[in-house]
Amino acid sequence: MDFTHLPHGDVTLANVTVPACLLGQDGDLVRTDISITGGRIGPPQAIAVDMQGAMVFPAFVDMHTHLDKGHIWPRSPNPDGSFMGALTTVRADSSARWSAADLRPRMSFSLRCAYAHGTRAIRTHLDSIAPQDDITWPVFRELQADWAGRIDLQAACLIGCDKWTDDSGAFGHTADLVAATKGGVLGMVTYPMADLRDRIRGFFAQAEARGLNADFHVDETMDASVETLRDIAELKMETGFSGRVVVGHCCSLSAQDEDRAMDTLDLVARAGIDVVSLPMCNLYLQDRTPQGTARTPRRRGITLVHEMRARGIRVSFASDNTRDPFYAYGDMDMLEVMREATRIGHLDHSRADWTTSFLTDPAATCGFDAPSLAEGAPADLVIVKARSWTELFARPQADRIVLRGGRQIDRTLPDYAELDELMRT
């Protein structure tokens, strides 16, 4: 149950706590009032509610998810918690089960969770190796239409670089499916190959010809010798690719020699590439050892977010996988992502504007409308009974209030039992 019930209609939320950076101010947290009129943030209203310091955020942006994989864990668990265990298990599940009738309810379930938790925009990656692309992309378009006005949806195709072809092959058809979808993004997973640079050049050419942005899964490994991020940065500058480019994961940077890693980040900054960090999934997968081995993981896989921000690289955080072989947990909750990213990445005792990495930064990278607390912005808000960062991150904030268009929404989460029929093996 929400920690308080707000009156319907125009109201002033008096005495709230807001990150100063969201108001364009210096400092950490500030006390202020936020007024709602006609579903938007507006001038002070006659009715006021003392919020007693409750913290307020605009609704969140989750820019890297995998809605098509979500919630398959009960029928297809990761056998050993490893990256390869996840990869092989998902491939087997998708080839056997991923019909429209299977995808739609699982993807809808995740969207209902995200909406209840306070997310207003999502980019999902969709496995797109033929013939799966012709199954999944029509389902995504249906969901995009169904959720219009509640969650803005984008999708990026997902293929390994070894599956890439020019327009005469299967990937040309996939690229056309992406281009025919509102907000479509061309995506690829990169890993070392003898002709990788040629493949990335061709990929950039396809995206450029269709006016698409690019989104890469990059170096999701603790092998310090894997440096495909350098190839992407160099080739973006070499080709003059004009679209936005975002890279996700970049785990191998954390295992590399300091000078080499910093040189790579200088390249990324010069290339104008954005980064999305997925700390919960990377913490789950990286540096695992076989079951029965008495070894604690040392390297945890989070990329070099502090060094990136220091170079002016735009950094975001996102959910990534949800209850699938790549991550057994998660609930599409960006407050959980914020809490865990702060703990894992030591965002505390650092700069005061990390909040933007869950709001305005991912919106700018993806081209979503910017979340805002400025007058005239939609009153799409997440309100939590916490007056400081330590109160915010100490609890899951399960009694949060979510406003959409200034109205308190029903935050009842869907019951996992709804998916039981799909989990039968």
Automatic annotation (TrEMBL):
Domain Amidohydrolase: 49-96, 192-407
Domain of life: Bacteria
Keyword presence, Transcription regulation: no
One of the Pfam families matching this protein, by short name: Amidohydro_3
Broad EC category: hydrolase
Keywords, alphabetical: Hydrolase
Entry GO MF terms: cytosine deaminase activity; isoguanine deaminase activity
BP GO terms, sorted: cytosine catabolic process
EC number, UniProt record: 3.5.4.1
PANTHER family assigned to the protein according to its UniProt record, in alphabetical order: CYTOSINE DEAMINASE (PTHR32027)
NCBIfam families on file: PRK07583.1
Name listed for the protein in its UniProt record: Cytosine deaminase
Species assigned in the record: Roseicyclus persicicus
